[in-house]
Amino acid sequence: MVPTAKPADPKTPVDAASAWDDLDPGLLSNQLVAWFQGARRDLPWRHELSAYRVWLSEVMLQQTQVSRVVGYFERFVARFPTVQDLAAADEDEVLSLWSGLGYYSRGRNLHKAAKAVVANHGGVFPTTAEALRTLPGVGEYTAAAVASFAGQQRVAVVDGNVVRVLSRLLNEDRAVQLPETKASLARSATILVDAAADAALHNEAMMELGALVCTPRRVDCAGCPWRTACLARSAGTVSARPVKLKARARTHLRLACIVVDVGGLVYLERRGSTGLFGGLGEPITAAMGDGDDVEAVWHTLCVERGISPPLRFTSPIVVERTLTHRELRFEVTMVQSSSAPSPPSAPSPQIGVADAGVFDDDALLTIGLSSAVRAVLAAARSPRLL
């Protein structure tokens, strides 16, 4: 028997709380898993569902496309095959391998969590949601994913893909960011998991359906195992689901940047542990206002670090980068110095300097730098407008 949805008026979406009166969760789960067994992608973290590997992949996949994560995951497990190896590593090496994935607090928390597993769990990665939530950087979603896939706990795993699938299946008309909507969709995910023959397989299949079929824009309703049950499809509202609150506008940040060459070596400072690119290395950099004269800011930065400002700075090399909530504009110059600058004596928590040093090209490959800073260094040493 195939579950069917009652016809609905698109202007009157079915309330998610009552939608299950018309749906059979056990049958839906069976259909989903049958589809998944034929559509499942061959991804490296699925080859061995250990808690360590599942956790590592789930942290990397947050806000990042699967295709981008594959290479990073393979490099990480090659260098750090166990949680003990990761815990014993230097943070710079961890952040260097993370460089380019963005959201660098994830990389720092990854390292802290590995240390916590070794210190508090005897090096054995926990597999219960409760224990996992005590680790740095592990929230409800990641804890549920590891507990389900590696610990075989019957818990619902609700990521963005699952939210999108459920909001369409149930024709949810409330914004998915609202607490009451989140709670309602979480209850619905639990209803399905409780009815599933294999909870972990069901959770994987739900996420895969959202990634491959019930995607944000190009929805393949014809290839969906739930096409006859989907209330949004019946109502003609698939393209309008999920409902989302208006995204906040990106902030624009203008940055003065000086790349100091010290006899062929590059001078870098480490940002404080919080804020944008926290804990990563960067050239001398400071935020400035829209109306500020960049040459005046460069001059001040040189003086603060004991560098003799040149009589005339080169024209700014502009490097622009777009982050999720920020537009960055680096205005960069190169300065030659016979000795290493002195970092500020009283750094601020976010912009200040934890430590500083000069680095050759090989060393630059082994320290934590953001992809934006790598672009700045490349532009300054081979000047061009990016």
Comma- or semicolon-separated keywords:
386 residues; Endonuclease III, domain 1; Nucleoside Triphosphate Pyrophosphohydrolase; 2 domains; seven-stranded mixed β-sheet
Question: From the coordinates shown, what is the CATH architecture of the largest domain?
Answer: Orthogonal Bundle
SSE class: alpha+beta
Distance between the termini: 59 Å
Please compute the radius of gyration using only Cα atoms.
25 Å
**Would you tell me which CATH topology of the largest domain applies?**
Endonuclease III, domain 1
The geometry reads as elongated
> Which H/E pattern describes the elements?
HHHHHHHHHHHHHEEEEHEEEHH
The stretches of 5 or more residues where confidence is low (pLDDT under 50) are: 1-14, 346-353
Number of strands: 7
| CATH superfamily descriptor of the largest domain | Hypothetical protein, domain 2
Your description of this structure?
The protein has 386 residues and is of the alpha+beta class. It folds into 2 domains: 16-240, Orthogonal Bundle (Endonuclease III, domain 1), CATH 1.10.340.30; 251-381, Nucleoside Triphosphate Pyrophosphohydrolase. The chain has 16 helices and 7 strands. A hairpin with a 3-residue loop joins strand 5 (317-322) and strand 6 (326-337).
